[in-house]
Amino acid sequence: MKHIPLIELTRGGTLECQHLGSVAVVNTQGQLLAHAGDPYWLTFSRSTLKALQALPFVEAGGPAQFGFTTRQIAMMCASHNGEIMHVAETQGMLDKAGLNYKALRCGCHVPSIFTQLEQAPPPGFVVDERHNNCSGKHAGFLAYCVQHGLGLDDYIAPDHRLQQAIRRDVARAVGMDPNYFKMGIDGCSAPNYALPLASLARGYARLASGARDTEFGASFAALGEAMTAHPELVSGTGRNDLAYMRAGRGDWVTKIGADGVQVVGSKSRGEAVALKIMDANKVALHAATVEVLDQLGWLDDAQRAELAPWRAQEIVNARGLVVGERRPAFHLQAGS
Fold it and tell me: Would the CA dihedral through 280, 194, 239, 308 be positive or negative?
């Protein structure tokens, strides 16, 4: 199979751009229910993997041992904006593990909240590792190492016992042999895995199903419920995962990943959607995601209206003139 146009743009009624990609809709058993393009396309999972990367720590009783709150469990799954609330929760996790923020190996970048709001940081603003969008995940990594007496300096090395435990549990969650994983290094310097879209979706179908999962039930319940309870921590002001999980009214567990990946799991249905936009265009990714949910019948009228801005169907220029249209170019096909 090949990728197909998922979203297309017109200007003056003439086709100008196409955003190609693929979609997989899967249940907890890995059955392909619907698709567009290539549902088995191998794509790096990027930050969609975070909830699954937290499995070894949660399975080992880490949150209870360190007294992590549901807010801090959500932070382990976050690609956050680096807002005050995010930095505070990350620092709280480090405090409970008895560590300084300098132990984080995720690196530094300008907090995403400033790019989100198109604002410059205030004069004198100092960035450190806690502002990194992956700092919550890394704080969880470090807590696991403290819990098990493992080295801290190299916790992101692929052969570290933490990363080997993550590889094992991710493979179990998505129903794959870890020996077939293709590994790369993510933006935060931790190992990341390329997965078929359908396998990634299966992991999120299981995550969303929570306690009903026979293997990871308690852990999936803890992670999924923390994410839906605190979507502002999983993402942040103005972000799509915050909007999606609020619109899902507690039923959807959602996570975006860099370079055009999005996953949405439904607790009530035991199903999940995984999408990939090949040119990594975020606006197209958001529009395609909402369209998939609509075609699947997951949206009622209120949700359709709430998520309409993420479809961004009209293209408006700097003067406020409607100059074109952004529209879906696909219809989901039944699984096979």
Answer: positive
User: 288 and 326 in contact (C-beta within 8 Å)?
Assistant: no
Residues 141-176 pLDDT 10s: 999 999 999 999 999 999 999 999 999 999 999 999
Backbone φ and ψ for 56, nearest 5 degrees, come out as -60, -40
Class of residue 227 by CB neighbours under 10 A (exposed 0-12, middle 13-18, buried 19+): buried
Contact 184, 43 (CB under 8 A): no
pTM of the model: 0.96
Quick one: three-class SS letters along the chain? CCCEEEEEEEECCEEEEEEEEEEEEEECCCCEEEEECCCCCEEECHHHHHHHHCHHHHHCCHHHHHCCCHHHHHHHCCCCCCCHHHHHHHHHHHHHHCCCHHHCCCCCCCCHHHHHCCCCCCCCCCCCHHHCCCHHHHHHHHHHHHHHCCCCCCCCCCCCHHHHHHHHHHHHHHCCCHHHCEEEECCCCCEEEEEEHHHHHHHHHHHHHHHHCCCCHHHHHHHHHHHHHCHHHHCCCCCHHHHHHHHCCCCEEEEEECCCEEEEEECCCCEEEEEEECCCCHHHHHHHHHHHHHHCCCCCHHHHHHCHHHHCCEEECCCCCEEEEEEECCCCEECC
45-59, 106-120, 153-167: which has the minimum mean pLDDT? Answer: 106-120
Question: HSE on the CB side for 267, CA within 13 Å?
Answer: 19
C-alpha dist (Å) from residue 279 to 168, 173, 283: 30, 28, 11
Cα gap 313→17, rounded to integer Å: 14
